[in-house]
Amino acid sequence: xxxxxxxxxxxxxxxxxxxxxxxxxxxxxxxxxxxxxxxxxxxxxxxxxxxxxxxxxxxxxxxxxxxxxxxxxxxxxxxxxxxxxxxxxxxxxxxxxxxxxxxxxxxxxxxxxxxxxxxxxxxxxxxxxxxxxxxxxxxxxxxxxxxxxxxxxxxxxxxxxxxxxxxxxxxxxxxxxxxxxxxxxxxxxxxxxxxxxxxxxxxxxxxxxxxxxxxxxxxxxxxxxxxxxxxxxxxxxxxxxxxxxxxxxxxxxxxxxxxxxxxxxxxxxxxxxxxxxxxxxxxxxxxxxxxxxxxxxxxxxxxxxxxxxxxxxxxxxxxxxxxxxx
Amino acid sequence: xxxxxxxxxxxxxxxxxxxxxxxxxxxxxxxxxxxxxxxxxxxxxxxxxxxxxxxxxxxxxxxxxxxxxxxxxxxxxxxxxxxxxxxxxxxxxxxxxxxxxxxxxxxxxxxxxxxxxxxxxxxxxxxxxxxxxxxxxxxxxxxxxxxxxxxxxxxxxxxxxxxxxxxxxxxxxxxxxxxxxxxxxxxxxxxxxxxxxxxxxxxxxxxxxxxxxxxxxxxxxxxxxxx
Lengths: 326, 227
What we know:
The structure holds 2 protein chains of 2 kinds. Chain A is of the alpha+beta class. Chain A contains 10 helices and 4 strands, in the order H-H-E-H-E-H-H-E-H-E-H-H-H-H. In chain A, 70% of the residues lie in helices and 7% in strands. In chain A, helix 2 crosses helix 9 and helix 7 runs antiparallel to helix 9 (237-280). By secondary structure, chain B is α/β, with parallel strands linked by helices. Chain B has a domain at 91-149. Chain B is built from 7 helices and 10 strands. Chain A binds chain B through residues 1-5, 8, 10-13, 22, 25-26, 28-29, 32, 225-226, 228-237, 239, 322-326, and chain B through 42, 45-46, 49, 51, 61-62, 64, 69, 72-73, 75-80, 83-86, 89-91, 102-111, 150-151, 154, 157, 160, 162.
């Protein structure tokens, strides 16, 4: 609306144009500026490519590290699945007592699976597997205790440990054994790695922010003349800013896509080598690639970086450019 | 339409560009602003287009004191004022159409309405056939006319021109002035700053003359035949 001339219908907000059409015009204009800034990138291909490459490469490193952590986690996860607790029973435990305990444990909501291995069964298995068959025959009595194997429903180390302590209280249980010390260590290492990824990512992203800010600053300076003219014919700061912000968004989109491509390429390249290793270990491990959600997150982070980088620049420099005179 | 009330402008360092200027430009009036370079013509135009603010005194457009206008409102004020620049200030990488359409795009016009208005403005300055040319390919006079088309495309009630004929030969200058006259005849207030005395004298419009920041003449200038 015109401030000076109350009767004067100002531009597109004049009464003739219905609200819906005005609303559409607003978005058409956004689209036009959005596509316009894409064209702007196209006009300076080398500079744009360099900025996109910086963004892409900077995002590749944290993304790769993230994938690495994710894969290691999945391996450690499959180990955690087999975190059984072995309860060694006292010699005095009677058959009925054992039976009662097994029934009780089966009903326990925190227990997923219970398996009773009698000393005889254990002996037989030991003889078979260990190769001490002959030597074991010489023993007067079976030295092996009765064992109950318990698979906890919650396989995290803490939960399993809690369960172990609780069941250990039972009278006929001598002691329980949960071999998770190495799992805890692995978990700690993973946590460290995750924090390292975060720190590296933060550093790189800060650098990217500054680089994009600087690129946008240069293009603002290049267009100083044009910005002055636009201000003189009545463009608001917001209007002048928009193409630059869109440029930042485009940097983000292309940088994110580049990072995605590089990571996928790397995974594809590594897959062959990993296949060989897993074959040697008779394991069926397959490298996990980026999920769709992760891809979207990468793109979102990239776009936000582009937008933030250009916003830092735009908010300072466009205000500073004032027309010096008619 | 436009009122200057005891307006002074001094710059840091003590230079006084304008010294207690008072005048009034009526709605639909056309006037010249003359004086040697450095007399304060540009400063006066800058105060109207809010590029500068006065040190003291009041500038009013349509009885609205420009002192009240906040920085964020300045763009909306400029949309009501068509400004024509000495060096035309066209965007050289964009076509004539894009240049003229710029004020409309800023105001949110799209599609047919925009095309219609741009063509109408270019038709008024006689450049409809150059609509898709780049400004570089046009002559100086044509470029200046594109500048005028851009200034009038959103039909502002007030038109300011700063040395619009500065680099043009007398014949072209006359053409440009006729364009201004045509706009004036449809009710637009026009203020043209120029140092071309013979042109001013020949056109016989009210003339404001500045000298070292002071208004030394307000009225018709005597016709002086150039030597």
